[in-house]
Design goal:
The structure is a single chain. By secondary structure, the chain is an alpha/beta fold. The protein folds into 2 domains: about 5-220, P-loop containing nucleotide triphosphate hydrolases (Rossmann fold); about 225-285. It has helices spanning about 45-50, 70-75, 90-100, 105-120, 135-145, 165-180, 190-200, 215-225, 265-275, 290-300; strands at about 5-15, 15-30, 30-35, 60-65, 65, 75-80, 155, 185-190, 200-205, 210-215, 225-230, 245-250, 255-260, 280-285. The chain starts with a strand and ends with a helix.
């Protein structure tokens, strides 16, 4: 499958501080790709280079098979983390203005935007000023603006910020529909659980570097089925001194456990039963968060 975008050893520094360090990854066309990592990992700096706001100090970026340039950038839709709406301007007027920047007529812009406005239940607010809208409604307007040019490649930086659970699910459904249409979608987030549910492939960053990049299922499969979830009436105190356990996180209603290599999960089950009734014992692939924590620990 051809790649929508390919980065080869891209590096970017600001005032001597390396924000992106020899970063390489590619995104196959038609996939949903997660660029993830903690705050300060270099995600936004990478996106700013992808959309032409800044240029790499070294390395190369190819977009739609060609060096990054204006022709390729015209085929991108970009939702920034920091929203850029004019608060005193009416929503409809603002969308027409943004459409004009993309070379669209006012009529065509409004036709496209009203379709999305109706789906997101915000069309009735097009005559209101932006500062009259809630943060969630403003986020919906920004999302509609991202789709004005019907982009082939969507880049979305923390797209779910400010949305309630219902609106978040609406946006996820739209992203899934756009992917089915063949669009390529990159979204950047520090919320690894969202990535696990949505993405085909990922690049997991820390301190400007890629810790992992590639197909998400392959990454999780290589990590092995070492994660165990236990719900029991006996509590989790016994795990603190348990020689079988490499790590555990107590979430109150359940405990997530990482076994040391070579240990049998059945031994842990027997120990848990000795301390009380077990209502759930589930062996599963490790979460992205667990994989990330382990990789960072190994490289320290």
């Amino acid at each position: 499958m051809p790649a929508t975008v390919t980065l080869e050893r891209v590096t970017k520094s600001y005032d001597g501080v390396v924000a992106v360090d020899a970063l390489s990854f590619s995104i196959p066309s038609g996939q949903m790709f997660g660029l993830l990592g903690p705050n300060g990992a270099g995600k936004t700096s990478t996106i700013r280079m992808l959309v032409g706001i800044t240029i790499p100090d070294s390395g190369s970026i190819a977009l739609f098979g060609n060096p990054l340039g204006s022709a390729g950038l015209a085929r991108i839709g970009y939702l920034p983390e920091e929203r850029g709406l004019y608060r005193r301007m009416r929503v409809g007027e603002q969308l027409v203005f943004l459409g004009a920047l993309r070379g669209l007529s006012a009529r065509e812009t409004l036709a496209r935007c009203r379709k999305w406005g109706e789906r997101l239940e915000i069309a009735a607010w097009f005559e209101r000023k932006v500062d009259e809208l809630s943060k969630g409604m403003q986020q919906k307007v920004q999302f509609i603006a991202t789709l004005i040019n019907e982009p082939e490649f969507l880049i979305m930086d923390e797209p779910f910020t400010g949305l309630d659970p219902i609106a978040t699910n609406e946006l996820k459904d739209i992203l899934a529909d756009l992917k089915r249409e063949g669009r390529t979608i990159l979204f950047s987030t520090h919320n690894m659980a969202q990535v696990e549910r949505l993405c085909d492939s990922i690049c997991l960053m820390n301190r400007g570097r890629a810790l992992l990049a590639g197909d998400l299922r392959e990454i999780r499969s290589r990590a092995g089925k070492r994660s165990i979830v236990i719900e029991s009436e006996g509590g989790a105190e016994f795990l603190k001194e348990c020689s079988l356990v490499a790590s555990f996180h107590n979430f109150g209603t359940y405990v997530e456990i990482g076994l040391k290599d070579g240990n049998d999960p059945q031994e842990l089950l027997r120990l848990a039963l000795d301390h009380g009734r077990v209502t759930r014992f589930e062996l599963s692939e490790p979460s992205l968060e667990q994989i990330f924590i382990e990789l960072v620990r190994m490289r320290q």
